[in-house]
Amino acid sequence: MTILGKTATITYDDQRARGEGHPPVIVSRKLKAGQGELPVGLLLARDEAGEAVPFEAVAGEALGIGNGATKTYDGVLTKAPIHPGTVAVTDGVEAFADDGYGRLAGSAGGTGTVNYATGAVAVNFTANVANGTEVAAAYFRRLHGVLDEAVDTAASSSGLAVVHGSVRKDVLKVGVATPAAPSAAVLSLLAEAGIWPN
Q1: Less Cβ crowding at N or C end of the chain, within 10 Å?
Q2: What is the pLDDT of residues 107-134, one digit of tens each?
Q3: What is the DSSP track for 109-145?
Q4: How confident is the model at residue 5, as a pLDDT?
């Protein structure tokens, strides 16, 4: 007896972020729900709960407004954990740079600290910040990999990510709403993390 039949047709888009060269290390990451469709090659960070979210560069997050009589400002950066070495704080006069070890050094001699895990930051300017002047921070979320496959977070709570090794540079993306190619600074962070675009 011969049975001929067709049970199913399966199609699969095999576009992946993994690259040639150094074999990639691929792990499953828990994705934060409700993020919509995440594309192949999306750079990932983790939120405070440890769930994967899109990596991003944060610019101009307010820490306070000067009153002309205060030198010290503190707050909690909203996109923690923070990538070490990327925090910058300024009032437009004195600029603080992150040494990668939790210390901030001001261009005019001020001092400060940052906790990369919690986002707590405090700076002590050399001079009082002028009345009405914003004290703002810029930083990168902590980079945790590259999404190896497209994932719809409405249908799946996890996805595969390259956390070490080679990735395809042509598919790398920063952001979901308006994806952009990574800057030279972001490519440098990838290399520091042991992820090499080719």
Answers
A1: N
A2: 999 999 999 999 999 999 999 999 999 9
A3: S-EEEE-TTT-EEEEE-SSPPPTTPEEEEEEEBPEEE
A4: 53
The CA distance from 40 to 132, in Å, is 43
- Structure token digits, residue 176: 């979901």
Which residue in 149, 50, 153, 192 sits closest to 182, CA to CA?
192
Tokens 């440098």: give the residue. 188
Omega before 81 within 30 of 0, i.e. cis: yes
pTM score, two decimals? Answer: 0.84
> Order of strands across the sheet with 134-140?
57-65, 134-140, 88-90, 95-98, 103-106, 111-114, 120-124, 72-76
C-alpha 73/C-alpha 120 separation (Å) is 11
Residue 14's pLDDT is what?
59
Distance of CA 40 to the CA centre of its chain: 16
Decide: 88 and 96 in contact? Cβ < 8 Å: yes
Q: Could you tell me which of 33, 35, 17 has the C-alpha nearest to residue 25?
A: 17
How far apart (Å, rounded) are the C-alpha atoms in residues 71 and 112? 11
Structure tokens at 1: 């007896």
Which position has the token pair 């395809």?
A: 168
* 8 A C-beta contact, residue 36 and residue 176: yes
Q: Where are the beta strands (DSSP E) in 22-173?
A: 25-30, 37-38, 43-46, 52-54, 57-65, 72-76, 88-90, 95-98, 103-106, 111-114, 120-124, 134-140, 143-147, 151-152, 158-167
pLDDT tens-place string over residues 62-96: 999 999 999 999 999 999 999 999 999 999 999 99
